[in-house]
Amino acid sequence: MLVVLLSLVLATAGNAAAQPPPLPPPVSVLPGSRGAGAVDVILLDAGSAVHRSTNAQGIPSNGLVAVTSHGLLLVDTAWTAPETEALLQWGQTHYRLPWIGAVITHDHADRDGGLDALVRRHIPVAAVDLTVAKLAARGVHDVTVLFKANSGLFHDPRGFDAFYPGGGHTSDNIVVAFPKVLFGGCLVKSAEAKDLGNTADADLTSWPAAVRNVAARYPQTTIVPGHGAVDQTGHALQHTLDLLAQRR
After folding, report:
1. E strands within 15-165?
2. Whole-prediction pTM
3. Which sequence positions are flagged as catalytic?
4. 213-248 pLDDT, tens per residue?
């Protein structure tokens, strides 16, 4: 009996050791009203934080704040300009560093709805050429080309990779990889997602290959999906593939 109990204790300890530490609770940046217009942040580590905002319908969306050797970088805006402005103010106060730029991961309102706040502050904004073309087609000309999709990968001197894995959630979706964190954006569903969400602009045929391309390049990393909980196990990529298989 003693041997059996000891084995159970050791097994439980091993499973506990394998579990990532829990993330800290979110910090409120903008309280919002009745679930809409709120912004909060979750500090992942000393160099990055997830920002989460809600639109008028209360739908939450994730972005990333990253500390680089040059200053702060924003990956995707909040839903609106006022929410994004509150986030920018928080970043400067919390980190005591200037904003040096922003990267947009595709052209949807949950990624670039707050662009006006960046433009007012003269913060440079960049995206893959496909996104820049989509923005220009609807009259937005304040975003420059970070890299071309047909090159696949861009190593930014500020300390991150921007990777175009192919079409998926949209034809222009990219992921942004830092040493400890992968921002998967809406290409990657959260590990708890029940479905693929908005597929109005999706390339369902290419999406699985795009996810596999990301998984092959960035294995075993903390993943921030475009919506939902941060994944510290890497399971979000496989879960996205499972959802795509169910859809087919």
Report:
1. 27-30, 39-45, 48-54, 60-67, 72-75, 99-104, 125-128, 143-147, 153-156, 160-163
2. 0.92
3. 106, 108, 110, 169, 198
4. 999 999 978 999 999 999 999 999 999 999 999 987
